[in-house]
Amino acid sequence: MRTITVVSGCPGTGKTTIASALAAADPLGVHLESDVFFDFFAHRILSIRPEAHEQNGAAVRAAAAAAAAFATSGYQVVVDGVLGPWFVPTFLDGVAPSGLMVEYVVLRAPLDDTLRRALPRPRGDQAEQEEIVRHMHRGFEDLGRFEKHAVETGGHGIPQTLATVAERRFRGDFLLAPTV
């Protein structure tokens, strides 16, 4: 049975690039971009707003169910998304019935780097995007009990970050206990 790897962090830390490379490295790799689950809401609430909590939880549960469906079919799933420590229990609950192991990788970079990388993307209002990046960056500054899951990407290229993630995955650094 396969493991689900969650690659998380603030926008602009390299999640999509790293997740895509990890999935591509496996002949049965699946790169699941969890952001797509937010696009299904007809009346989406900006995810950083307090009133978006239930919406965000529903999207996380849907991403977990999709990841588990692929993984139980034999695929190596790499989930890419802004899944902060506050939603790790929700994700694990969604995966738990499958009995799958989950790795949690959090990419971090200095705020200036994340703004430089994330803001040029064509994704809506520039001021709103900056507010999101700044908000999410604060959310990943202190990971509490998940601090050991952090990988600093500031000043590191993609090859170096991939090598660090691969080495730490091999050591089992990112594995989560079935219940958090």
Produce the secondary structure layout:
Blueprint lengths: L2 E7 L5 H10 L4 E5 L19 H20 L3 E5 L7 H8 L5 E8 L2 H8 L7 H14 L10 E3 L5 H14 L9
Parallel strand pairs: 1-3, 1-4, 2-3, 4-5
Helix pairs in contact: 2-3, 4-5
Explained architecture:
The protein is built from six helices and five strands; from the N terminus they run βαβαβαβααβα. Helix content is 41%, strand content 16%. The mean pLDDT is 92. Strand 2 (29-33), helix 2 (53-72) and strand 3 (76-80) form a beta-alpha-beta unit. With 180 residues, the chain is an alpha/beta fold. Helix 2 (53-72) runs parallel beside helix 3 and helix 4 packs antiparallel against helix 5 (126-139).
Low-confidence stretches: none
* Main sheet characteristics: 5 strands, parallel
Give the number of helices.
6
Strand order across the largest sheet: 2-3-1-4-5
In what range is the share of β-strand residues?
15-25%
Question: Secondary-structure element order, as H and E?
Answer: EHEHEHEHHEH
The radius of gyration over CA amounts to: 15 Å
Fraction of residues in helix = 40-55%
Number of strands: 5
Mean pLDDT: 92
Which structural class best describes the helix and strand composition? alpha/beta
> Which geometry do the CA atoms define?
globular
